[in-house]
Amino acid sequence: MKIAVSGKGGAGKSTVSAQLVRCFTLHKKPVFAVDADPDANLGLVLGLDPDKLDSLRPLVELQDVISAKNFGGGTLVDLNPDVDDVLENYTLQDGLLRFLKMGAIKQGGSACYCKENSFLNAVLTTMLLDRSEAVVLDMSAGIEHLTRGTARGIKMMLVVVEPTRAGVSTALAVDRLACDLEIEQVLFVGNKIRSDEDRAYLQASLPPERFAGMIAFSDQILERARLGQPLVSELGDLVPGLEKIYEQACRR
Ligand SMILES: Nc1ncnc2c1ncn2[C@@H]1O[C@H](COP(=O)(O)OP(=O)(O)OP(=O)(O)O)[C@@H](O)[C@H]1O
Ligand SMILES: [Mg+2]
Fold first, then answer.
1. Taking the CB of the first residue and of the last residue of the chain, which one, N or C, has fewer CB atoms within 10 A?
2. CATH class of 2-251
């Protein structure tokens, strides 16, 4: 199962991504957890070792590897390099979980970043289309790492949305981007729900049949974030509602 998680800044993308990743490992399924948000914190929410996370290089910064995969440097770009070794050597492994950071995609300016972009694309294509492991991509609202090609591998995009007007408007914008990329299935996840009014607001603002689930506002989640504690561990601690979303994702 290949899942992308998107939504407005602060909506709860990393929280939902980390919980989904742990659902896979709790069910003894190997999974790639991909931090594809330039403002990344998925590793910490997953409870991975902060020192190891610090020393893990984002893929876009692997200049030595990127050159080697592109005929040893120069101007030629290999559009389809073999990157299986990258998934072994530049990921942080924790049991069944392999964690990797994409890094910020660079655009515009005077330099051409074709090599970096085609390298990231190759890594995503390999994970999404060639490998059998599950994948959870923690993305920004821009979903800029995805191309039409890699989007083909995504079986489900979850758009995390808080019950606010700004949250809904970003969710609709992400939905349009995902539609342009022809992503098969785009579902919403209501988050930080405090009341029936919150729930009703979201269901009135977005197509109700396209909700994968809703997650209540939780003091425990917020307290752990305040203390810098991981939200989930190998032992569990799943937020109510997440298991249901996971099951839906696996069923579809
Ligand atoms: N259901 C919830 N109840 C209470 N707090 C929550 C809930 N979900 C997320 N939070 C808190 O909201 C904050 C933002 O969540 P998170 O980091 O998952 O969002 P994000 O969309 O990944 O943010 P960013 O755009 O910064 O990457 C965090 O402090 C998190 O602990
Ligand atoms: Mg995040």
1. C
2. alpha beta
